[in-house]
From TrEMBL:
GO terms for cellular component: membrane. The keyword Transmembrane applies. The keyword Metal-binding does not apply. One of its GO terms (molecular function) is cyclic-guanylate-specific phosphodiesterase activity. The chain crosses the membrane at residues 12-37, 178-198. Residues 445-703 form the EAL domain. It comes from the Bacteria. Residues 301-434 form the GGDEF domain. This is Diguanylate cyclase/phosphodiesterase with extracellular sensor. One of its GO terms (biological process) is signal transduction. Keywords: Membrane, Transmembrane, Transmembrane helix. CDD domains: EAL (cd01948), GGDEF (cd01949), HAMP (cd06225). Residues 202-254 form the HAMP domain.
Amino acid sequence: MKNLGIKSRVIFLGTIPALLFAIILVGYAITNIFGVLDQSLEDRGRVIASQLAPAAEYGVISGNSQVLQRLVQQALSNEQDLRTVMVVDSHGLTLALSGRELPKALIAEIAKENLEQIPQDKGIIFTFPIYRSLVEIDDFSNLSSKELELKKSYTPEKIGQVYIELSNQTLQNIKQDLIVKIFLTAIFGLALSGLLAWKLGRNITKPIQEIAQAVNRIGEGVFSHTIMENSSGELKTLQKGFNSMSSSLKHAYDGMQEKINDATSMLRHQAQHDDLTGLINRREFEVRLERCLKSVHENNAQHIFCFLDLDQFKLVNDTCGHSAGDELLKQVSILLANKMRERDTLARLGGDEFGLLLENCTLTDANQINNALLKTIRDYRFIHDDKIFNIGVSIGLVVINQGFENVSEIIHAADLACYSAKSAGRNQSFLFNPGDVEVVRQRSAVESISDITDEIDDEQFMLYCQPIVPLTSATTQLQHYEILLRKIDLDGKIILPTTFIPSAERYHLMPNIDRWVIKNVFLAYQKLLEINAEKCNYIFSINLSGTSLGDKSLLSFIQDMFIKYSIPPQSICFEITETAAIVNLKNTILLFSALRKLGCSFALDDFGSGMSSFTYLKNFDVDYLKIDGTFVKEMHINKIDHAMVRSIHSVAEAMSIKTVAEFVENEEILSELKSIGVHYGQGLYLGAPVTVKGLIERYAKLHAQ
């Protein structure tokens, strides 16, 4: 019933009463009619047997077998269903037989049990006794009273027995025919009832089925489906309600679909565009770049990829905050987009890096487009909070050809070209050429840091140190060394920091490297203290990169290292470059203040290289000024360099800051520095770099004696 439709249920419920009535009627008819037929057959057999018994009396008494034989034959021929008629005497001797002879055992059983009838498989055997009749002759005399008494008490004498076998085949045929007729009548009645129920169910359920089908159509998403309002009463109300609901659903669906389409378009746009600038994002740009590379391999097409990196973005970001940096990126994006051709793709690849894909473009046209972009950015001035910034851009160009196997190779080549443009002076473009000396150098620099991870292997780097020698008797006679870093490649070759530091800074690997240096310098100093703490009068200067100065967690790391290795803070001096200090001005001041409270000292390296060195100097509480070596190495033959060294030393003296001159390469330079009064000198003439491990071993031998 659960799986039947409403129409089938109506038909089913309509035919069940008729079916039950038919079953009851058939059962009742068969039971009663069959009982009547069976009783009729029994009555008929008993009548035939009872009629034959008197008729056979004479023949039995007289012993006239011919008379008896004619009697039984006549009875067999007159009665259609008789199979056997047999007359026997009182001793069981057969006097007459018509039909098949009954078994003697069966006759003996009937006599023994005194049965009147016994059923068989194909009929019924009936028996009736033959009695001698009492003959009354009224014509001779009247009977006396004694004779009358004898007459009343007279018991007839049994002189024989009649057996008949009545076949039930005709009765069975009648029954079968009757059953067929009854069942045909019942089936016809059921069919008629089913037809009436079907018509009734169709009229009742057709509107409901139409509504159900319409509901299924709505479930399939066809909200515009309606039905005919051709019923009456409650069904018509239901039809009207459904059409009203369908109309409301269609209206709501249309509104919902419109919102879904808008949301899908927005999500697709967000998946393909940068949230800040609205330009194509890196993921979508790489898809288009992949498509262009495929066209190069299949159709020998030519495309140009340009990698753009803003030159002064970090200065704006660190000076005015990230909101100013975001505004700068928006404005620059608009400036660049206005210079694009319709078929070109401009994307923001991340940070202050942009990608420009010039499809089906010659190198000549690409150079013209890039020159226009360089001029646009060069002429642009970014203003924020009354501060004006000149923004430049460095561009790396790559001709996409069949030499590239994948997109990563193209982007990497453009990145190398862009970095070469920056190294060449910024705000210019550089075309990638695999054999170009500058490209080869940049590739080597990148490859030199490719094995640096978050967990630096101690076998990758080695610490060196170079002495910082006092030049005047007034300076403290402590053993001051600057810690220098060297990288060891896979072949055991020593790589100088000028080769890998720029790339490490660019790819934000310097914070990890600086932390490795700090930890290992502290560990080395701990070994010196373990050898002889009383005689240990070293000061180690550790260089910090600009990216480390922007790491707010660096202070807690240094504090943890002091606690872990129990190093006196007075033995550690941190060196930072003037440029790094200016770019990270706020963080640098906070770091200086916190570490100075512990007892650390500070040195400002490469002083004098910036345009506003003396202006920024008053913002830093430093202990040492390391004069830029470009002024020192020719000061004995160049009056301007000599004047610069003298002026830097004079300002430092006025601020009670010790000066350190780098690149002291000969006696003439040393003599000039001493005449000016520079406090310390550092260079190959005063002492070449040695390994920190060698310094520790020498210290151990010195104090082992």
